[in-house]
Design brief:
Layout: E1 3-10, H1 16-24, E2 32-39, E3 48-52, H2 59-66, H3 82-85, H4 92-101, H5 107-110, H6 119-132, E4 137-140, H7 149-164, E5 169-174, H8 180-183, E6 187-190, E7 195-198, E8 211-216, E9 240-246, E10 249-258, E11 267-275, H9 284-298, E12 302-307, H10 310-317, E13 322-328, E14 332-333, E15 336-337, E16 343-348
Parallel strand pairs: 3-5, 3-6, 4-5, 11-12
Antiparallel strand pairs: 1-2, 6-7, 8-9, 9-10, 10-11, 12-16, 13-16, 14-15
Helix pairs in contact: 4-6, 6-7
């Protein structure tokens, strides 16, 4: 990684307004000159870096000078759906797998245009787009600048997880110091002090997430989650409902129904499970599923789920606690015919 000595000089034309300001504030020169000197001392054995500092300290100038071809922002989104804005040579499976990897895991949102997405979703879409461009290095300027700070921290953790599953390199450029503990970078360059810190030998642990689950009789809470469910907006009022809070913010929903069976009476199945977009990518859905699964199993019930969601299926396949009971297209759920799509049925075992 390079040493740098960057000089930026602005020479405004001496218009009436410029001359007025120079005279009014007794400026000694009509030229504005800035110099940025530093050293990012790293070899290639890193994946995540962070250029951080206050506004006006030179973050963008340094990043653009050192990595001019690696920016992943300023993509042009013109299509009616995010899916069609992704690189044309990529398959649907590659695109949706990448969406899931960065925590953009709401299929209904994949069918929306970029302009209507939340700022948190736009950040994840930009990252997914960068990953699909096959860039070896991605530099994300103004990282998390336009999202709520709780969302920024959760999103930073989801982003670093996605990057570390690849061989890519990622540099976040930000004025927000609160993301550092969540992004878990291998190095930081601070533009306030022009100092470099190598963090590769430090143990990386994200801050604790306050995770709480409550049962609720208020079935209307489903309205907040319905549009994010990949399959249906409907909900059976007979289901038992539980909600999850992350850092005291509503984040997840799960509901459980009795599963009719000719011989077995103690089967409970997941009716709906949804995580709000801003909290996807950090394992909220799995934690919610398995917490509730433990609760029912400890009360002598069998606990099952039928799903076609790729992110859940990929997790279940690699877990010793989830047993695949069926894979195919040949069943009908109580909510309607599912024969046109592949579904999988799983049972949770302790």
């Amino acid at each position: 990684m390079p040493n740098f000595n960057i000089v930026k000089e602005v020479k405004p034309k001496k218009t009436f307004r410029v001359s007025s300001v120079i005279g009014k504030f007794d400026l000694q020169t009509e030229h504005i000159k800035e110099q940025f000197i530093g050293d990012i001392d790293l070899n290639d054995e890193w994946q995540i870096g962070c250029i951080i500092g206050s506004s006006g300290s030179g973050k963008t100038t340094i990043a653009k000078e050192l990595f001019p071809e690696s920016y992943i922002t300023n993509f042009k989104y013109k299509s009616e759906t995010i899916l069609d804005d992704m690189p044309k040579e990529k398959s649907v499976d590659e695109i949706t797998r990448t969406f899931n990897s960065v925590g953009f895991s709401s299929p209904p949102s994949w069918l929306k245009p970029y302009s209507v997405l939340s700022n948190g979703q736009k950040m994840r879409v930009d990252l997914a787009n960068g990953l699909l461009q096959d860039k070896e290095l991605m530099v994300f300027d103004e990282f998390t600048s336009v999202v709520d700070r709780n969302v920024a921290q959760i999103g930073s953790y989801a982003v670093q997880k996605a990057i570390r599953k690849t061989k890519r390199k990622f540099i976040a450029v930000s004025c927000h110091y609160d993301i550092v503990d969540w992004l878990l970078p291998d190095w930081i360059f601070n533009t306030d002090s022009m100092t470099f810190q190598d963090l590769r030998k430090q143990k990386k642990n994200r801050p604790e997430i306050k995770f709480e689950i409550y049962q609720t009789r208020d079935k209307s809470v489903w309205r907040m989650f319905a549009k994010h469910h990949y399959l249906s907006h409907s909900h059976n009022n007979a289901a038992n409902v539980y909600v999850a809070f992350v850092n005291e913010q509503l984040a997840g929903f799960i509901s459980i129904l009795h599963q009719p069976h000719p011989k077995v009476r103690n089967i409970r199945r997941v009716h709906r499970v949804v995580v709000l977009p801003d909290y996807q990518g950090i394992g909220v859905g799995i934690r919610l599923l398995e917490y509730i699964g433990n609760k029912y199993i400890n009360n002598k019930y069998r606990f099952t789920i039928t799903t076609s969601a790729p992110s859940l299926i990929n997790y279940f396949k690699n877990s010793i606690n989830w047993i695949c009971r069926r894979f195919g297209r040949n069943i009908k759920h109580l909510i309607g015919d599912s024969s046109s799509r592949i579904t999988t049925a799983w049972e949770y075992k302790l």
